[in-house]
Write a structure and sequence with these properties.
296 residues; Rossmann fold; 12 strands; globular
C-alpha cells in the first residue's frame, strides 16, 4: 500500500513494484475507489481515515504523502500545511496499522535530511542529533507521528531522503531549463553542500528498505555529496552550457523568503546505514546521476 502514489517518487515506486509482479494499493484523496485505489482521509489522525479492511493482505506500507516543501512561499499558513500534511497523515497510517487484525510487516514512513539542519562543512550520518530550523522541527515531529505502528510491534523505517534528481519533478525539473539556456549559476557562495540521489536509486533504496531488516532512520542519499559550486560546474560541463552568473543570496532571499535559508544552507549527509547494509548505487557520482536524469 502506497500513499503519495501520484507524486514523483510514488509514481516511480509503484511502477517498479508492479513491473515485478507486486500488487499495489494506492491510497488517494480524490476520485473513486476501485482498480487498486482506495479513498482515505489523511487528516483524520486516527484509524478512521483508512477504510476498515484496507490493510488485509498488505505486506508493506510505504507512506510518502506530504505537501511539497518548495511548492509555495513559506507563509505561516503554508508552513502549517507542510507540518500537518506530514504529521496528521502519518498518525492516520500508523493508527490504522496498529488497529489492523493482520498487520503489515513493515511501514516505510518518509522523512528527509532536513532533520540535520545546516551542517556546514561537517559530514554527518544517522548518529547525528537533530539540527535547528523549521524543517528540522518538522522532521522530528513527522517521524514521531509513526509511534503507534512502532508500539504495535511493526518494523518502522524512516528514509531520510535528500534532493531527488529527476527531470520529471522536484528541484531539478526547475533548474534544468535554466542550465540548458545557459542561465544556471551557483546559489549564493556555492560553498554549501548538496546531498542528492537519482530517482532510480531512490526507488531501489525504498525497495531495499522494504525487504531489509533495517528500522529507524536511514539516509537516502548518494555516497558522494557535492558543493553547490561543483554541482553547477558539472551541469554546465555535461550540458555544454557555461554557468557563469551566480544567483546572489540577497536575490534568493527576496524571491523565496524563508525557504531561501534551506536553499542556501549546507547539508553534507552520508548514507552510512544504507551502505553498511549492502546497498549499491547505480549513480554514486553526480555526473552519473545527471547523465541518468538526461536519459529519462
Amino acid at each position: 500500500m502506497v500513499t503519495g502514489a501520484s507524486g514523483l517518487i510514488g509514481t516511480a515506486l509503484c511502477a517498479s513494484l508492479e513491473a515485478d509482479g507486486h500488487t499495489v494499493t494506492r491510497l488517494v484523496r480524490n476520485g473513486k475507489d476501485g482498480a487498486g485505489r482506495v479513498l482515505w482521509n489523511p487528516r483524520a489522525a486516527d484509524a478512521s481515515g483508512i477504510p476498515a479492511g484496507t490493510l488485509e493482505g498488505v505486506d508493506a506500507v510505504v507512506h510518502l504523502a506530504g505537501a511539497g516543501v518548495g511548492d509555495k512561499r513559506w507563509t505561516d499558513a503554508y508552513k502549517r500545511e507542510i507540518l500537518e500534511s506530514r504529521t496528521l497523515s502519518t498518525q492516520t497510517v500508523a493508527a490504522s496499522i496498529a488497529a489492523a487484525e493482520h498487520k503489515p510487516q513493515v511501514l516505510v514512513s518518509a522523512s528527509a535530511i532536513g532533520f540535520y539542519g545546516d551542517t556546514g562543512d561537517r559530514a554527518v550520518d544517522e548518529t547525528a542529533n537533530a539540527g535547528d530550523g523549521f524543517l528540522a522541527d518538522v522532521v522530528v515531529q513527522w517521524e514521531a507521528a509513526a509511534d503507534a505502528a512502532r508500539a504495535a510491534g511493526v518494523r518502522v523505517v524512516h528514509p531520510r531522503t535528500g534532493l531527488v534528481m529527476s527531470k520529471w519533478g522536484g528541484a531539478w525539473q526547475r533548474m534544468l531549463p535554466l542550465f540548458k539556456a545557459g542561465l544556471g549559476g551557483k546559489l549564493g557562495s556555492g560553498k554549501q553542500w548538496w546531498s542528492w540521489i537519482s530517482l532510480r536509486d531512490e526507488v531501489r533504496a525504498l525497495r531495499f528498505l522494504i525487504d531489509s531488516d533495517l528500522r529507524g532512520p536511514v539516509n537516502l542519499t548518494a555516497p558522494n555529496p557535492e558543493t553547490n559550486a561543483a554541482v553547477t560546474a558539472a551541469m554546465g560541463r555535461v550540458l555544454k552550457r557555461p554557468a557563469l552568473l551566480p544567483a546572489p543570496a540577497f536575490a534568493l532571499k527576496a524571491a523565496l523568503g524563508e525557504f531561501s535559508v534551506e536553499v542556501l544552507g549546507s547539508a553534507r549527509i552520508l548514507p552510512t546505514r544504507l551502505e553498511k547494509a549492502g546497498f549499491t548505487w547505480l549513480d554514486p557520482s553526480f555526473e552519473q546521476a545527471l547523465t541518468t536524469l538526461l536519459s529519462e
